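Give me the fold.
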Amino acid sequence: MAKDSRNEANITFMRRAGYLLTLAPAVFLVDFISKKLIQRTMVPYGETVPLIEGVARLRFIYNEGIAFGLHPGPFSGWLLIFISLAVTLTLIWYILFSGYNDISGLIGLCLITGGACGNLYDRIAFGQVVDFIEIGIRELTWPIFNVADMAVTCGAALLALRLFFHNPAPGGQDSGKTSPGEPEASPAVRSGDAQ
């Protein structure tokens, strides 16, 4: 039986605030603690610690760029802090006041917000971000990252998947159409006429 689209249209402000105040601080806390442990136990740009032989290792660096070590170009220092703060505040406002009514998308936005707060704290406290996770095989490695970067990436992936599999009707409400491969609901079920 197809899910009634009205169920997703009733996410209250308090429920959105609950997701935000649970997920974002949890991401921030895990990121903060992991960075503090790295700072206390490793030397920046020093030896690496293998996690999974030949695939994953700890390598402590400071990153003045943006996520995954990408260089920010002309955006650096206080300008990058200002942009990060503006994006974070916009995300918080959007989660709380936009009336966004999709659970998976809401979770994605909260993960992104928590990750953004984690890296923003580093920029304000140190002028750069603590990165320490490196994955790759031999010389082919992904740029070094941290827990905040993982949260932002997972949140963005959730949003992308939701956009890919969601078919909104005009006005932003769920059209009741299913994603490819799923049987389509009858018009009575989609319109909510069936009891």
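The CA atoms of residues 75 and 83 lie 9 Å apart.
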